[in-house]
Every structure is written in C-alpha cells, then in structure tokens.
Amino acid sequence: MSSKHIKSQHGVGLIEVLVALLLIAIGILGFSALQLRAMDAANEAADRTFAINIARDLSERMRANKSGFNQYKTSINANKVNETGCVGITSAYTPSCNAEKMADFDASEINKKATANGHVVRIDACRGSTLSCVYVAWGDTDIKTSIDQCVSTSGSYVANAQCLVMESY
Predict the structure, then answer these.
(1) How far is it, in rounded angstroms, from Cα 23 to Cα 21?
(2) In a domain, 73, yes or no
(3) Is residue 19 in some structural domain?
(4) How far, in Å, CA of 77 to CA of 148, rounded?
C-alpha cells in the first residue's frame, strides 16, 4: 500500500464512531420516552382500578341499604366526611340507627378513601337512562358540581376525561 492512501484515511474512524454514538443516543432517548409513556399508562390503570373499586363499594353499600338511597346521594355529593356510624345496641337487640345515619357513615367512608387517593365521587342521574350512576373522577376532570366534564348531554364520554361511570340504582 502506498503512503498516500493511508494519509487520506485519517479521521474516518473517528467520524464512524461519532455517527455510531449519535445513533445509540437517539435509540436511548426513544427508549426513555417509551418508558415514561409506560409509567403514565400504569398510573392511569391504577387510577381506573381504584375508581372501579370505589364505585363498586358504594354501589354495594347502597344495595344493602336501599331505603337510604336519597341520603347516600345527598351525603356523597356534599362530600361529607367524619360522620359517626351506628354504635351500640338497644335493649331489644336492634341497631341504634336508621337508614339515613348508615348512609351518612358509608358516604363518609367512601369520600375519605376517594379524597385520600385524589378522586372525587358523585351520584347523579345517568345520561341516556332512568337509573342513577356513580361517577368517579381524578386528575383534571372536575365533577364536584356537574358531570359535564365526564359525560356529554347525549350520554357519551367526554374526550380525554379521567372518570368512570357505573350504573348503580
């Protein structure tokens, strides 16, 4: 080989290494973005699972205390907390409370759990149905006064809303 040919190759190896490093860096950035998206999806799944459990718990409590339904709606929507339960038994071995007190206590328990995890619970009429629904929202979706950020007037979900709707009663 001639010395002219060797001299024209100076620096080519360094450029190849730099190009390879650039490609590796782009791959790592893509993987990092994918990892962040996966973490967001896992957090969203955890929020949905919690919302399902809260809505199911409230629905089961309302089914067990059907005569207190109106009080459940009032207490949940007013975000009541720290209500005392039915304590003690009368001399006739009957509970010393009524359906409304039990509904207040149940609503307090549900609201405490929901608030502790950044969720809001509301009971309202189901849109497009004659039933009542349990609405659970989290993140940027606000249902404290109205369910409009969760469900449209036609009954379909609002795009990008972070909420769950469960027909209940």
Answers:
(1) 5
(2) yes
(3) no
(4) 15
Taking only the tens place, the pLDDT of each residue in 92-109 is 555 567 888 889 999 999
- Decide if 32 is inside a domain: no
Distances (CA, A) of 22 to 18, 25, 36, 48: 6, 5, 21, 39
Q: Rounded to whole angstroms, how far apart are CA atoms 156 and 45?
A: 21
pLDDT digits (tens, 9 = 90+) for 14-26: 888 899 999 999 9
- The alpha carbons of the chain give a radius of gyration, in whole angstroms, of 29
C-alpha torsion 119→60→135→160, nearest 10: 70
Q: Considering its fold, how many domains does the chain have in total?
A: 1
Structural domain boundaries, residue 92: 48-167
pLDDT for 161: 93
Q: What is the distance between the alpha carbons of residues 112 and 95, in angstroms, rounded to a whole number? A: 24
Residue pair 90/69 in contact by the 8 Å Cβ criterion: no
